[in-house]
Amino acid sequence: MDGSVRNIIIGSIILVLVSMYGGDTMGSWFVMEVEGDSPPNPYSFKTSLNFMLTEYEVELEMEGESNDEKSDYGDSDAMLCDSDCDELNDLMIGKIQKLLYVAILAGFAALYFLNEDDEEKGAMACLAMGGAGLLAVAIFALSFPEALDDDQGGFSEMDEDPSLFGDESIDEDGEFEADAKWRPSIAFALVGISGILGMATYWKLNSESP
To answer: How confident is the model at residue 134 (pLDDT cuts 50, 70, 90)?
Structure first.
């Protein structure tokens, strides 16, 4: 097996593992921040939402005090949602996580087949690895904003259409002023890169085969 191909496959597997188990930073899929103040009252606030694969974190800063809390998407007493975050749970656990497991298993299968000098099966395993990663990224990009709005209603409260990227200023008759920003985070990029590497390896093996 070509050493460069092996290293690419191992790197692709590592990227997926980091996106799953990288903690609050490397395992972050989506972040939203709302910062503002209420002019009639002498206080300002900042709310940060950080969404990982199986849980999310809410951090609230107000008048110099900070409160940080994590919840699983399936918690019945979830801080963010009215009950459990059904849509987010179905998306992140029911779809994204399963696709990431497929990508990891396909990566190890590719290493096995290539070690046995079976480049045809190795290439197909790389195709499955890359396809699963890119599909996970596509499903997340298309579904996460809607799922978040269904569970939490933040976009509807801002009178904004659910979107993957955004920056919105909020002013309610001078009584409430805030700036909201949201975007995908590191884990989203890691899985996308992993998927691209998997597809590139598939193309490389195909181009080299007789």
So the answer is: very high
**What percent of the chain stands above pLDDT 70?**
89
Q: What rounded mean pLDDT belongs to the chain?
A: 89
What is the DSSP-derived secondary structure letter of residue 27?
T
CB 27 within 8 A of CB 179: no
Q: Give the residues across from 59 on adjacent strands.
A: 48, 68
Asked if 185 and 25 count as a contact pair (C-beta separation under 8 A), the reply is no
What b/e string do you get for 22-47 counting C-beta neighbours within 10 Å, with b at 16 or more?
Answer: beeebbbbbbbebebeeeeeeeeebb
Report the pLDDT value the prediction gives residue 40, as an integer from 0 to 100: 60
pLDDT tens-place string over residues 44-78: 778 899 999 999 999 988 776 778 888 898 876 66
* 48/57 Cα distance (integer angstroms): 8
The first and second tokens of residue 90, run together, are: 């179905």
Question: DSSP code of 132?
Answer: H
The dihedral sign for the CA sequence 183, 73, 48, 45: positive
Spatial separation of the C-alpha atoms in residues 51 and 73, rounded to whole Å? 10
Q: Give the residue from 4, 57, 6 showing the smallest Cα distance to 29.
A: 57
